[in-house]
Amino acid sequence: MSGILTFYFFAFIFGAVVGSFLNVCIYRLPKGESVVFPPSHCLQCGYKIRFYDNIPIVSYLFLRGRCRSCDTSISLQYPVVELLNGLLTLFLFIKFGPTLTFLLLFLFSSALVAITFIDLEHQIIPDVISLPGIVIGFVASFFLPWLGWKNSLIGILLGGGSLLIIAYGYQFLTKKEGMGGGDIKLLAMMGAFLGWRSIPFIIFIASLVGSVVGITLMLAQKKDSKLAIPFGPFLAFAAILYVFYGREIIWWYLSLAGPNPGG
Question: What percent of the chain has pLDDT over 90?
Fold first, then answer.
């Protein structure tokens, strides 16, 4: 039992460390900056962050959320991303174990974490994440029997194509652009990693949750229908939900929608 807990512990730590790198990507990719150079530093005073001040979650708590050099407040986003990615990695490891599936879905979920926070702040989904993601997901499908290259390829076409049709339809009816190309490429990436069967589920859940959140925010802020809400985070949430519980939810829904033996 202790051996299993040790593996779980290191899975969480590994995910949190990668989450620290994701924070760099979240800040720099929208600016077109390198994620490698220069090394991590305080955005206010330029202080080069030492390794002992860059320990995921722990350093933020130890420093009480402030720079060691200039005492400037550090965004809470940093430990949140590290904790979130650590937990996702842990849960993926618990579900799939040390397998190629775990590795593939770890890359996928980490990409979704970065995309979510970038889209929330900048309302963009960087091609530098989604386009390589499509290629990686498709290539990996050749080595995963449960996915398969045909399933992945159809997922790419269905994912990207379905949102493209919706986007053009919305634009034709309203004469306004309601969905960016980033969402289309993101859903194509999801199809590459998860296969075509995931696409209807992801679109339905993302649309449902997005509508509830959007209406709630409009009522709370007293905004009209022009309130801009990024769709990427809802797609990411739905994709993660599919990874962990998609099949169970689909079977549960089908059991409700099926014929009633006593009717």
Answer: 61
Query: Residue 82 corresponds to which amino acid?
Result: E
Distance CA 157, CA 191 (A): 8
> Which token pair is 254?
């089908």
Q: Are residues 236 and 139 in the same domain?
A: yes
Is 106 contained in some domain? no
**Residue 88: both structure tokens together:** 């996702």
**From the CB of residue 169, how many other CB atoms can be counted at a distance below 10 Å?**
12
Domain count, the chain: 2
Consecutive H or E run containing 115: helix 100-122
DSSP 3-state of 41: strand
Q: Is residue 110 part of a domain?
A: no
Say yes or no: 153 and 75 in one domain. Answer: no
Residue 113 in any domain: the answer is no
Give me the domain span that covers residue 203: 125-263
Q: How far is CA 16 from CA 51, 93, 243, 253, in A?
A: 15, 14, 20, 34
CB within 8 A of 115, min separation 6: which ones?
125, 126, 129, 130, 186, 232, 236
CA 156, CA 134: separation in Å to the nearest integer?
Answer: 7
Q: Say yes or no: 150 and 242 in one domain.
A: yes
Query: How many Cβ atoms from other residues are within 10 Å of residue 134's Cβ?
Result: 22
Task: Tell me the pLDDT tens digit for each residue of 155-210.
Answer: 999 998 877 777 666 566 665 655 668 898 999 999 999 999 999 999 999 999 99
pTM for this prediction = 0.89
Which backbone phi and psi does 73 adopt, to 5 degrees?
Answer: -65, 135
